[in-house]
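sry for the spam today, last one i promise. struct tokens for design, 338 residues
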């Protein structure tokens, strides 16, 4: 089987690896029709997160169940399934509370930029789609595995409700999905913060009503001006840098919430400013598993099309070019066809 292996900064290779096999009775093997690179993979690709040894990469997946372990009950070979980047049992107290990404037995998925993958705790992790999807639905279903579920969680954490003014910091795939999520939740006004023409176009297609190109203090000032000096009711932070977190915090009205889903890197927040801002912060790794049934229905009924974030398609052989294109921001998100 062919799989992408990250060897070190800037060094991704497609290699021949042993095909995955059932190791635990709760496992399933899923054959992958389309894989992708996550913005968070770039932290390792850029050398910011160290890679001590070569590691099979990728954590977003969907596909056809090929084989199941002896204890698997809820999925069977031939079904099309989607799972989250954290495998979860879906039975522990944290799962039952809806926070499957904090499952007591969670397993971070890896090795999904490949022809097939082993999924632990298949009964808890995988959600079956209503049938085998038409080919054109696959990118949108794959997007649910991470970016759309994460954008959805950002909107939930920010408390987006009908009629609200929402600002979205970050125009990567998650930020764009955050725009789509805010629109689905009935936001009245959605301010997408983006300076990239193609990404702005997609943000508008996903439901943004306003675009702010400025960043930092200028971006904050523009949101203030657009909201009569009040600030946005809800802000989705989809980057994970100090600059983006502060921009989100300072763009939110007193009493509002920031939903932060960009994995923080080197962020420290001024506690005193946070205290006096009256802004709440909620976020973390999205419990995508909780949202999958609802999001699958929305995609299946063609009411949302998050697969539009894939603006480049490459054969899996060209995975290295896929990483380069995303690293250089030539692509929002790359679809890799095994
Ligand atoms: Zn659990």
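last one done:
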């Amino acid at each position: 089987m062919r799989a992408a292996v990250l060897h070190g900064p800037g060094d991704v290779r497609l290699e021949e690896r042993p095909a995955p096999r059932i190791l635990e009775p709760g496992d399933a093997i899923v054959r992958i029709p389309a894989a992708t690179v996550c913005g968070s993979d770039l932290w390792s690709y850029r050398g910011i997160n160290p890679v001590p040894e070569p590691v099979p990469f990728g954590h977003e997946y969907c596909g056809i169940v090929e084989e199941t372990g002896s204890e698997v009950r809820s999925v069977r070979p031939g079904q099309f399934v989607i799972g989250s980047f954290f495998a979860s049992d879906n039975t522990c107290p944290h799962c039952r509370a809806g926070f499957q990404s904090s499952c007591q037995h969670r397993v971070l998925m890896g090795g999904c930029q490949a022809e097939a993958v082993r999924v632990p705790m298949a009964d808890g992790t995988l959600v079956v789609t209503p049938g085998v999807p038409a080919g054109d639905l696959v990118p949108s279903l794959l997007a649910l595995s991470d970016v759309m579920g994460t954008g959805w969680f950002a909107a939930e954490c920010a408390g987006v409700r009908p009629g609200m003014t929402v600002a979205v910091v970050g125009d990567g795939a998650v930020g764009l999905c955050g725009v789509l999520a805010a629109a689905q939740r009935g936001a009245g006004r959605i301010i997408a913060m983006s300076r990239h023409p193609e990404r702005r176009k997609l943000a508008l297609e996903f439901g943004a009503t306003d675009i702010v190109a400025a960043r930092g203090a200028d971006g904050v000032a523009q949101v203030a001006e657009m909201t009569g000096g009040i600030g946005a009711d809800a802000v989705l932070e989809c980057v994970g840098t100090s600059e983006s977190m502060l921009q989100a915090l300072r763009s939110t009205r007193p009493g509002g919430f920031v939903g932060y889903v960009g994995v923080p890197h080197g962020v420290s927040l001024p506690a005193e400013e946070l205290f006096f801002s009256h802004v709440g912060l909620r976020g973390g790794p999205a419990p995508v598993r909780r949202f999958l049934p609802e999001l699958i229905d929305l995609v299946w009924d063609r009411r949302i099309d998050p697969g539009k974030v894939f603006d480049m398609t490459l054969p899996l052989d060209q995975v290295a070019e896929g990483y380069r294109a995303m690293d250089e921001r030539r692509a929002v998100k790359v679809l890799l066809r095994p």
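Residues 88-89, 91-92, 94-95, 103-105 surround zinc ion (CB under 6 Å). ok im logging off now
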